[in-house]
Amino acid sequence: MNHEGVVYVTRHEDCSRLLGGKQFKRNPPDGVGPFSKAGQTLGSVEQTVSHWMLFMDQPRHDVVRRAFTMPFTPAAIAAVEPFILRRAHELLTKYPLRGEVELLKNFCYPLPVMVIAEILGVPAADMDLFYQWSAKLTAAMDSGTHEGMQTGAEVVKLMTDYFDGLLARAEELPPHSLIRMLHNDPMQLTAAELNSGLIFLLWSGHETTKNLIASGIQLLADHPAVFSELKQHPELIPAAIEEILRYDAPVQKLSRWTHEEVAFGDFIIPRGTMMTALVGAAHQDAAVFNDPELFNIHRADNRHIAFGVGLHRCMGSILARLEAQIAFQAFLPLVKELRPVRHHWRTLSAFRSLDELVVEIVPA
Ligand code: HEM
Predict the structure, then answer these.
(1) Ligand 1 center to 63 CA (angstroms)
(2) For position 118, which CATH number holds?
(3) Would you say residue 3 has pLDDT above 70?
(4) Containing domain of residue 133, as a range?
(5) 97 touches ligand 1 (CB under 6 Å)
(6) Which member of 60, 299, 300, 305 has the greatest number of CB atoms within 10 A?
(7) With left for phi above 0 and alpha for psi between -120 and 50, is residue 144 left, alpha or beta?
(8) How many domains would you assign to the chain?
(9) Which of 173, 164, 158, 189 is nearest to 68 (CA)?
């Protein structure tokens, strides 16, 4: 337990139980928001995120999730695949892939942001704006505490106004865009759930996928034998992506509140306690993964929990996997040798997030 009274679990079995069990919910019993107990005041960030499906409990969660599901079904994602392919090739041929190359802002970030912008109907020209907003929103979300939620108000206001503006001119957006479809038929969403849900999708739709692609390139630069093997056997890319998700899970911390007294081994945890699953630790659990410290793309039965477990399991996992697969399929044939030069992790605890990735490339 830490000084704020949060109880951490690290074993794979305990993390899976916390995320999947009915006694554990996103909101505290008798609370006023996902991070605030009775008597505390909700700041504007917490008010906004309390309308995200991620921080809702049943039954409302299911209504909201259903409303936003349409673009993330396998059929809808198959339809967006040609767009992802085109953008990946465009980004990689826009500048010479030779010598020292910065890949985070030139490839790993723009690819997923262009894809989620296309799905939502948001102008991709506003991409630089989203980069700043997402960095601030990620930092506010990172602490996962009532105090942490007090920061980031300014950015949430900007994003809310931005989506209000887009919703007001929804009829001018492409007919297949989610904003236009939900504007015409909000599927039982309140106005606040619609606006906040779009903020959530824009953010969740690229922040973590950016990190999956960037961590993957960094790992390949650090493991030249794996890099060569993947070049020769691109059919191994999907398994490599699962191992990147295990080894460098983009989301490292997931929290729930206990709604009854629970026992974890000898520990009795009272009702109304915040508990946090440390995903990165669960991915190092030797009871589930042989030699967990090794980056091994041939791992059999890779039971990582990078996309969560249970009710809140990631809605974008198929899309994220496809984007990463296309990113590596497009990148690897263009590169003969890949060497690490410089990278920088943001100082966060919940998100494993690079904000600089420079590699040295010998072109193919
Ligand atoms: C590598 C990329 C991604 C990772 C690692 C990831 C991870 C996660 C995790 C761990 C959760 C569960 C949170 C919890 O249980 O508290 C989650 C939920 C969610 N993710 Fe992702 N995600 C990724 C990409 C995406 C993408 C591309 C989208 C598309 C917009 C997306 C949309 C969502 C949504 C909507 C939820 C909430 C589901 C719910 O509450 O029912 N994610 N994600």
Answers:
(1) 17
(2) 1.10.630.10
(3) no
(4) 7-363
(5) no
(6) 305
(7) left
(8) 1
(9) 189
Average of pLDDT values for 223-244?
98
Backbone phi, psi, residue 210, to 5°: -55, -45
Residue written as tokens 């824009």? Answer: 202
Cβ of 283 below 6 Å from ligand 1: no
- For atom 43 of ligand 1, the residue with the nearest CA is 314
Average pLDDT over residues 188-200: 97
Give a yes or no: residue 325 inside a domain.
yes
Average pLDDT over residues 9-36: 95
pTM exceeds cut of 0.90: yes
